[in-house]
Amino acid sequence: MSYTDRTLTCVDCSVEFIHSAADQEFYAEKGFVSDPKRCPSCRAARRAMRDSSGYDSRDIGGPRGYERGEYRAQREYFAVICSSCGNAAQVPFKPRMDKPVYCSDCFRNVQAEGGADSAASETRSSAT
């Protein structure tokens, strides 16, 4: 595909800039489908702000993936003894005395055997 230089307008500063044929080819190689919205100087300023210590991903739309925001309490873990092997483990829920609690390894084994179908969702744990 052949590319030609195009004039675009920056959404931040409203200055016209050239989106060169070489840049368009680079964008296509990277799989980008839309044209840049910002001129090179505004992109550089935005990148510098993002790389500085004062920038936070929540400033542009909230936590991504499994990030936990400052507004959310840290998950509490409880120390338990595995009902199967007797090893120490930590779980992200408060265990009930009427249900067995397993370390990660034993939980996988019990799940594979099909023995904990009804209690599987309540007894997930992670070994320490």
Keywords:
alpha+beta, three-stranded antiparallel sheet, 14% strand, single chain, two-stranded antiparallel sheet, 128 residues, 3 helices
Q: Would you kindly provide a written description of the structure presented here, covering whatever features stand out?
A:
The chain is α+β, with helices and mostly antiparallel strands and 128 residues long. The protein is 25% helix and 14% strand. It is built from three helices and five strands; from the N terminus they run ββααββαβ. A three-stranded antiparallel sheet has the order 3-4-5, with no helix packed on it. A two-stranded antiparallel ribbon has the order 1-2. A hairpin with a 6-residue loop joins β3 and β4. The relative contact order is 0.10. The C terminus is likely disordered.
